DNA sequence: CGAGGATCAATTGTCTGACAAATGAAATTT
DNA sequence: AAATTTCATTTGTCAGACAATTGATCCTCG
């Protein structure tokens, strides 16, 4: 938890960390205006460009926003769920794409997380959530759909399932897991038979949620998890054979 | 998913986004060296400070690292789980602390996620994980422990439980949920009676995992979830009364 | 010929000073 | 009183410079 090398860090990194810690500690509250760049330069005994680099670091993390003009400046940003989604998805995508996480591992994590919210979703899902899921099922049944569109619809279906739990923290956490998987899923070529099976399972899930049967939804998700992993294994085998 | 206002964005933000997209798309691969700051300044037709601001934005997201010296420069960073943890915890902490997420909601999310990995942990936990959990239980039983230390130990216990699932993606996702809750948990004052009850439930969880009984672990986690929420409600009531 | 040290060139880190652009507030005019 | 102009403040961008770091190169000496 401690900073690794505070002595060898850039000045801009040190300053950014100072300000970040102040925000986390609550010393700087939401919408509070930070001193102007010139003032901070004096305060930290550095030049304005150095302060600016620090501020850009914070802006990249959505911790502050800046505004030009007479009453402008840098303001502490209220971290929005949308901002958090974006960061989460970027981070997860990169983690999965370049950190030798196997499809298997990612898939297991995704379905474990999804199953966590199945009972909540069964209890709380609105008619809207159910309607979204049904609509995506219809879309997925269309013949001639590209694999990419099929995957996108799959993501939308599962997002609706997660959102049905009515817990924004869960939605935010799972957005990363589900969306970051999409590039990996896109590598799979779905046959008509595969799609029919998946659509069938999706329908069973929707039915279960409609009847507020969390237990049943959980079971079907388990089956879907197994099936997806089987498909991925086959896709991987084919790819290996062809090279 | 699309950028909101590319036309009103800073030059440094635009450049940072360009490079970020190139990294995500795989056009820039891990450990690849970016052009020098001067070269990029020419390439993008901006000044060097502007390029530097862009690079600092990327560095803040752990997308690149920089090195001084003759063979130095900016290199595409391999996103490490550790980096991802850090970002996740910062984001989640801020999201919970200043986005009016109720303790109830956060708590529900946390235990839902934890229960997701209970069966996996029961199956795969090593003796090490179990030993860590037992050790933390002992620490939690010490009389005279401050509330903060008790909470820290609680986090360590649950981290061991999650890590026991042996899925780094789950560990990374849950790190945020569990650790971000700590500041909220610290607001609770635990009586000796509360602590005994929690330690008892922790012991039951450890026992269940030792016997590879995921079902049982899940049940106890459910109880712990309910109990924690009760305590939080009481703490909130007391706080409300005193003000 | 090899090893060790001095030199060098490339690159990032930092500073200074300047000007442009935006923007809300104050002063002025109608 | 309303509309317009002016103005001060602040961020955005630029140019050029120097310091610090660091690997590579070259040179000297054994």
From TrEMBL, chains A, B:
Ranges where the HTH gntR-type domain occurs: 9-79
Keyword Transcription appears in the UniProt entry: yes
Keyword Cytoplasm: no
Keyword terms, alphabetized: DNA-binding, Transcription, Transcription regulation
Protein name: GntR family transcriptional regulator
Source organism per UniProt: Aliiroseovarius salicola
